[in-house]
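Fig. S4 source data, part A: sequence.
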Amino acid sequence: IAEQYSKNENFEQAIEVYTRAYQIDSERSKKGLLNTRERYIHKLIVNRKRTEAIEQCELMLEIDPNNEFARERREEINTPNTNLPNQKEDTTLKNKTPTANTNWLKWGVTGIAIAVVSLIISPGFKTCPAGEKKEFGFFCVADNSRISRGERTLFPNTNNRFRDQGIQAFQRKNYQQAADLFKQAIQANRNDPEVVIYYNNALAREAGSPFTLAVVVPIGTNSSDAQEILRGVAQAQDQFRKNKALNGRLLEIVIANDSNKDQAKQVAKELVKDTSILGIIGHNSSDATQVALEEYAKARLPIISPTSTSILLNNPVFFRAVYSDESGGRKLAEYAYKNLQLKKAVIFANPNSPYSNSIREIFTNQFEKLGGEVIRKPMIDLTASSFDAEKEVAKSVYGGEAEVVLLFPDTQSTGIAINIAKEISSRNERLRNSPQNPPIRQLKMLSGDTLYNNETLARGGKDLEGLIIVIPWFRETLQAKPFAQASDKIWGGGISWRTATSYDATQAFIKTLANNPSRTTVLEGLEKVTLNSSETSGYPLKFTKERERQGESILVQIKDGKFVEIK
């Protein structure tokens, strides 16, 4: 009876019957009870029922204290509750005089001398707390070198003398001169979104009373993604100005660098303090977004992510301009099972990544629901120190009879995933050149959107031929082509999906602006935002009650060294 309930996905009834059976004969009932709870937890996570999922994990661990599945799921979803009540914005923070400067005025000459000597000889005073730096050799003050409106470049490796001169003018508050120089910087390097943003910021400052948003990107650790995101934001900002803005008020963009999680929390804290900032666009990775989200939630500061897809990201201030992993994971599962007619899958992922765990969870749930099987569950850890691509691929094929490999790396482990793909391609090539009797099926490769970029094509070469990737936006679709072609002319080259979704996120924020906006009015406005296809990168934008973007992901395949849509 319990097995039949479980097959029909009546998990609560199945668990009830299994539990009664377990009390009578634990050995015969244990496996069925644990497997049913596992499937039930999959379903609860997909439906964002965190409390119930954690409860089921605890019940699994009571029966099997060493159960890895229950331990890992509990750790993934057992995050602090950030659904906090409204808090008043601290309007005193923005213009607050630093403590160090105030103390200089209070102490007098003798006090300063004593303090300096004490600090210099103090053996414990070596480093400043996170997010601060030394001033005058010993004072700790806020380190804002990761944040800029135009006071500094966050891309020092890019040379542009007009940009550097514009920054100097911006620092002097000579905004008109800064705008003229930034305009020349754009002409010198039209592909650089930073100078476009600074140009518009200077004009916004000159006009007075700008609307301010912030964008957080992973400069340094993933500069390519950072540039792609900034292009979308810059394009929307520039268009807002050309469309006569709103009552003469222009849009100012604060750029922040979180190094893809390393500084995400500290950057979020600094942005929250600046009460002029009405909303956040970012962060790039789900890992970084998860770390920062608690800070934005405390301040009731709305955030729209154009790139973070993990279903574990959920908060009343969090919106998404990209389809979540629920869309991508389901699409991959259905294509693998129904179109490719594959029944056994193996997953390579990073168990410590919210993104990897999210899309893996969705894929596994849907693939097994259709009738497929994921072997070596829940995944093979591609970040393990002892990881060997050749051995793991061989073990999956000959030991588990895998037919398809799912590559779900986070943004920091894409290089490892490319090496796995190369090993699979090498194996497939050997099979083609040395046919077996009976024939051995060649492995198919499917992936999430972290492998959709030019770097994948450049590093993988012909070894990635045939790789299928699920993505939220593709420039060659009928809906996306007009925006893609217009953007190509602006930036002097093809744009990515990150540029498209970042443009849409900025457009959504712009739609909420009014004469006297606040974080509260913007947050309330986002819930009602509706953008038609002419106002976005090609697809309408409307948020569900869970603040997700409505729509469906797209499948592309690498053919002849380029991405081609699978229709």
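Fig. S4 source data, part B ends here. The longest strand covers residues 211-217.
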